[in-house]
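Quick one, T. Sequence first:
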Amino acid sequence: MSLEERHKLKKLLDTVPKRTVVLSSWLNDKGYSPQLLRRYRTSGWLSAVGTGAMIRAGDRVGYEGAVYALQNYASMQVTPGARTALALLGKAHFLQMEQSLVTLFGPTDARLPKWLREADWGVKIEFHRTSFLPADLGLVEVEAGGVPLKVSSAPRAVMECLHLASGSDDLVEARELMDGLNNLRPKTVQVLLEACASIKVKRLFLYLADLAGHDWVKHVDRSRIDLGSGPRSLASDGTYIHEYQIMVPRELA
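Structure tokens:
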């Protein structure tokens, strides 16, 4: 390996954090040719995790390092959300979390690359393409798996849980999650609710906040939130909430 190649290797290792995936396309743009990257692999400095994706040889990389690559090298708006984000934020410690399932969200035109879908990250990855909230709204940065990641903030994550809810158990769990969110910022909640395109999510979110009795919900201006018109049924045989025109499971009410 030439002196220049060693210098570029040192720069690469100094630039790319440990426990992360790095993309060949990004490195190519930085002046690392496919031939040079191949030499780094054969020399034992890098290991491939799929076509177009590599890690430091011997490094232990989880799904967090893969998502880091999407966010930082591919400029993809893919983020951990719903229960996964709440767990990373320390907001779901009292729930029975399925540690083997990771929920990611992205815009409707996003596609997870083949290298991420086919590699073994030690967890099952569930990817949801949605447009009920803008993909870049209501995110926060946390350290996850030893790397910095953008994830859904607590109010956005609860809205994502409500978006995915398919039965009474999911809604009861969402209520338990809401009960623990006593320090949300009303301005953040306001922006998310005004931007949310799902009538179901907005009505349920406000209803659960009312049930929890949080002080911050008093500062949300409901006149600026489109709650739609007409009733919505979330249970075949439940309790009707007149204020929000929703039929909810009896366990929730």
